[in-house]
Design goal:
transcription, alpha/beta, LacI family DNA-binding transcriptional regulator, 336 residues, 6-stranded mixed sheet
């Protein structure tokens, strides 16, 4: 059939009124199961597709969801994005993606642009969220969900993970293997999750009667290069037997730093990361790490946002997901 198939053509073929076809396509009640089945079969046979522009005019919505990530160059944000896209795929919502790249001004400008009627709702991954930007979101009344906020008291619906118990579990794994001199690489100090993970490490050590040696704790950026550089200094100067990193990229850099010092992993040195990025399973040896459910975080954030767009109230403003220790081949008992 040439040209765009119309509701009238579907109605004629199915032997029902155009209003019945419209109601069935829109998911409204009223039609019998048999009528609904027949209309949907005819619509599929003729290749009918709803006119999204007309539907948007009628509902006052754009059919678009905006997403602003802190960074789109690492697998962390991309895994969350994949979860968001999977959830929106069946909801007739398209996704507009942007990134702030740690720039608070750019983040505010992007939010202001999207909030001008371009999108129905907004998802933010690890945003900077200065007070002025939060006030902008309140003023525009744009449905918004934050994934992995920099601070937990942000006054917006948010999705986080159990950073504390995840890091305690990862540290305990090394203690159970017999390690007592364990180094720690912290991430960015402007993230509350950094402090929470470090507290989990400290408490695991303290409860095992082990000292957290000041010289074995270092702060660095969440990058492979920073992990390589910082771990190389710790290993060569202070000789721990294991290292816990606040992120997988740090751990992967640290593993290569150990190799550059002539050590083998895990026979001479053990490593634990945090995230379970795809690279963790693909590295050699496979990285033992604490898994954040990144895909699930994206899915649950998208689901919450769709509820807000529909005018529903969320059962909880803060959803915390669990973590899981994934044991691979980067950990072993310390050398004799």
């Amino acid at each position: 059939m040439a040209g765009r198939v119309t509701i009238a053509q579907v109605a004629e073929e199915a032997g029902v009124s155009a209003m019945t076809v419209s109601n069935v396509i829109s998911g409204k009640p009223g039609a019998s199961d048999e009528t609904r089945r027949r209309v949907l079969e005819v619509a599929a046979k003729l290749g009918y597709r709803p006119n999204q522009a007309a539907r948007n005019l009628k509902t006052g919505r754009s059919g678009l969801v905006g997403l602003i990530a802190l960074d789109l160059t690492n697998q962390y944000g991309l895994e969350i994005l994949r979860g968001v896209a999977d959830e929106l795929a069946g909801a007739e919502q398209e996704l507009l993606v942007n990134a702030s790249y740690h720039d608070a001004g750019r983040e505010k400008d992007r939010i202001e642009f999207l909030a001008g009627g371009l999108v129905d709702g907004l998802l933010l991954i690890a945003p900077v969220l200065e007070d002025e930007t939060i006030e902008l979101l309140r003023r525009r009344k744009l449905p918004c969900v934050v994934i992995d906020p920099r601070r937990l008291d942000v006054p917006l619906p948010r999705i986080t993970v159990d950073n504390y118990h995840g890091m305690r579990q990862g540290t305990q794994h090394l203690i159970d293997l017999g390690h007592t001199r364990i180094a720690y690489l912290r991430g960015g100090e402007d993230l509350e999750s950094t402090s929470i993970r470090f507290r989990g490490f400290q408490d695991a050590m303290r409860l095992a009667g082990l000292e957290v040696a000041e010289e074995l704790v270092a702060t660095c950026d969440f990058t492979y290069a920073s992990g390589f550089r910082t771990a190389g200094r710790l290993i060569s100067e202070h000789r721990p037997t294991a290292l816990v990193a606040g992120a997988d990229l740090l751990a992967l850099g640290a593993i290569d730093a150990a190799r550059s010092c002539g050590l083998t992993v895990p026979n001479d040195f053990s490593f634990v990361g945090f995230d379970d990025l795809p690279q963790a399973a693909q590295s050699f040896p496979g990285l033992t790490t604490v898994r954040q459910p990144l895909h699930d975080m994206g899915q649950k954030a998208a689901l919450a946002l769709l509820s807000l767009i529909e005018g529903q109230k969320l059962l909880m403003e803060h959803m915390e997901l669990g973590t899981e220790l994934i044991i691979r081949n980067s950990t072993a008992a310390p050398p004799a």
